[in-house]
Amino acid sequence: xxxxxxxxxxxxxxxxxxxxxxxxxxxxxxxxxxxxxxxxxxxxxxxxxxxxxxxxxxxxxxxxxxxxxxxxxxxxxxxxxxxxxxxxxxxxxxxxxxxxxxxxxxxxxxxxxxxxxxxxxxxxxxxxxxxxxxxxxxxxxxxxxxxxxxxxxxxxxxxxxxxxxxxxxxxxxxxxxxxxxxxxxxxxxxxxxxxxxxxxxxxxxxxxxxxxxxxxxxxxxxxxxxxxxxxxxxxxxxxxxxxxxx
Length: 246
What we know:
single chain, about 250 residues, mainly alpha, 3-stranded antiparallel β-sheet, about 55% helix
C-alpha cells in the first residue's frame, strides 16, 4: 500500500492522495510489545465493525458472524463450490480511498470518484468566495465521478461565473440563472478543471511508464488509477459537449 512505498513512488500520487498518505504516516507507530494491548482493543473494535459492514453493505453475502475463544465463524447465506472465491465488500469507497487505505483499486467500482479540491482551491482563495461557500455549506469536498462533476463542484464554480444574486437563486433551487452564466460555468469547468487534470494525469502516466526503476506492482496500480481518472475526465468532457449541443 502507498504508506509502505518508497518516497520516489509516493511522489507519483495525486496531490490529494499524497496529503492523505502523509496524514496516515504522521500517526503511524512503531510495532513494540506495548502495542499488544492496542491490538487486543482493535480486536474488539473489529468485532463491532463486522456488524456495521453487514448492516450497510448488501454485497457482503454473510448470514451470520459469530465470535468465540477460537476466533470467528462466518456463515454464508448461499452455497459455495470448493475453491470458489468468497468476496467481502470494503464499503462504499472510491478507488482513491481503496488505494491509500488498502493498496488496491477495482476495475469496476460503482462508487468511484476522485477529488478536484486541489484544482478548485486556487480559484476560491478570495475571502468573499470562501465565506459565500462556507455560509451555504458548500466549501470543500468537490468530486468528479462517473456522472460528471458533483453538484457541490458546480455550486463552487458558479461563484466564479455568476453574480451573487444569481448564485443565491441557483443554490436556493429557484433558478439556474441566465444562459450566459450556464455557458460560462461550462467553459470554466472545461478550462480550469478538466484540462488541467487531464494534463496532470497524462504526465503522471508518461512518467511512470518511462521509469524502469519502480516496483512493477505499485507502478502498474498507479498507471491504472491515473487511466481511470482519464476515463472520468473523458466522460465529463463528452457530457460537456452534449450539453452544448442541446
